[in-house]
Amino acid sequence: MTNSISTRLVVLGSGPAGYTAAIYAARAGLSPVVIQGIQPGGQLTTTTDVENYPGFRDVIQGPWLMEEMQAQAEHVGTKIVWDHITSVDLSRRPFRLTGDGGAQYFADSLVIATGAQAKWLNLPSEEHMKGRGASACATCDGFFYRGKKVAVIGGGNTAVEEALYLTNHSHDVTLIHRRDSLRAEKILQDRLFAHPNIKIIWDSEVAEFVAGGTPEALVGLDVRNVKSGSISRIDVDGAFVAIGHKPATELFRGHLDLDEDNYIRVEPGTTHTSVPGVFASGDVMDKIYRQAVTAAGTGCMAALDAEKFLAEADFEAIPQAAMQHA
Ligand code: FAD
Ligand code: NAP
Predict the structure, then answer these.
(1) What is the pLDDT of residues 121-133, one digit of tens each?
(2) Residue located nearest, by CA, to atom 43 of ligand 2
(3) Nearest CA-CA partner of 14 in 306, 305, 309, 295
(4) Among 54-58, 137-141, 210-214, which stretch is predicted with the lowest mean pLDDT?
(5) What are the φ and ψ backbone dihedral angles of 33, each rounded to 5 degrees?
(6) Ligand 1 binding pocket mutation candidate from 98, 114, 127, 287 (most atoms within 8 A of CB)
(7) Cα–ligand 2 centroid distance for 159 (angstroms)
(8) Tally: H helices and E strands in the chain
(9) Alpha helix segments (H runs only) across 210-291
């Protein structure tokens, strides 16, 4: 028999946005169901030290923080389900979500918190050096390169902002871009070009991340000039890949309004999406800040928006007696 769960609120995703939404919704008596997805705990489970989440004087670990958030959500009455949603029907009530193994989830309201994943260059040597010098988040990891040499790969706003940010820690920042002009806004370009501690390598791409030392760490990048094909090595301790993010919104294409970069569009200042009763929070709707604390903040907003929506709803809600937990 296929499992089925009916609930007033499904929270899709188990990163900081999803768990925060669940904590607020559970405390409002909505008995939310969190569907964790294939990355329980979200992006922070892929990192080690987290030093900018408020409330902790000492360095904390990303996976530990997410376990604590999950424990808090469960403690106040959230049901956690491990499943990956493969299709949604938001065209009628209750909303219906279908899991990987065929389980059905029926909900009067939905908080989407499916996050966004940084794009990588997809080089085997890059994969090998993740956490050992290769990063996709300067705000998160820049601090670890104080006084060291770093490179940023990309030519958009994120790459330029990350290069500028890294000058707070490093006196030797190199931006590597595959063309001879940047995509970033002019004002950011002007700041970049004026900065004495930033060099730019134009028309170039990274051919290899070079490892060395014991314990093994990044020591350089082999950089290929795309016009001449020649390869030269630059010495760096950290390399920040900033070639864009991909929001996890494939599931919602054709069901919700997405913006030109495929982020879920919300009414400014709220988490309301184009479908009443569906709310979006965290990195899936935020292409600018993309931090754990901002994801948690919009998760809180989404739960409050959902609570208000359900209190005012004029459709027939899923009756308490019909609620089943598989
Ligand atoms: P995510 O954390 O991306 O979680 C998304 C969730 O959605 C996951 O649980 C996933 O399984 C689930 N999901 C996706 N699709 C489906 C589906 N179809 N069905 C079911 N579930 C689904 N931020 C900081 O503030 N400080 C840091 O130090 C920091 N370090 C970082 C280090 C790294 C290496 C990375 C990658 C990011 C870092 N960040 C940091 C950024 C931070 O992790 C993100 O901003 C934050 O996790 C976003 O939270 P979120 O809840 O929106 O989404
Ligand atoms: P982006 O605008 O898509 O830029 C990605 C950059 O990476 C481009 O320069 C691109 O090169 C390069 N790139 C892509 N794939 C590559 C690859 N495989 N190898 C090498 N280089 C590659 O991404 P973003 O900078 O993350 O910005 C995303 C969105 O968020 C944009 O809308 C941006 O405006 C917005 N944003 C805004 C702010 C702000 O307002 N302050 C800050 C950050 C982001 P090409 O140029 O050759 O395509």
Answers:
(1) 999 999 999 999 9
(2) 158
(3) 295
(4) 137-141
(5) -115, 120
(6) 114
(7) 7
(8) 7, 19
(9) none
Burial state string for 5-33 with b = 16 or more CB within 10 A and e = fewer than 16: bbbbbbbbbbbbbbbbbbbbbbebebbbb
- ∠ CA 60-12-64, rounded to 5°: 15
Q: Give the pTM.
A: 0.83
End-to-end CA distance of the chain: 11
Sequence letter at residue 149: K
User: Which tens digits make up the pLDDT trace of 72-91?
Assistant: 999 999 999 999 999 999 99
Backbone angles phi, psi at 19, to 5 degrees: -65, -35
CA distance 47 to 139: 13
| Cβ-count burial 110-149 (b if 16+ within 10 Å, e if not) | bbbbbbbebeebebebbeebeeebbbbbbebbbebbeebb
Give nearest CA residue, ligand 1 atom 45: 291
Region class of 83: left (phi > 0), else alpha (psi between -120 and 50), else beta: beta
Q: How far is CA 19 from CA 9, 55, 213, in A?
A: 13, 17, 40
Cβ of 205 closer than 6 Å to ligand 2, yes or no, is yes
Token pair 């469960």 is found at 74
Do residues 170 and 148 make contact, with C-beta atoms less than 8 angstroms apart? yes
Q: How far does the centroid of ligand 1 lie from the alpha carbon of residue 145, in Å?
A: 23
Adjacent-strand bridge partners of 64: none
d(CA 297, CA 243) in angstroms, rounded, equals: 26
Pocket probe for ligand 1: among 35, 78, 140, 255, the residue whose CB has the most ligand atoms within 8 Å is 140
Closest among 128, 118, 84 to 240, alpha carbons compared:
118
**Ligand found nearest the CA of 241:** 2
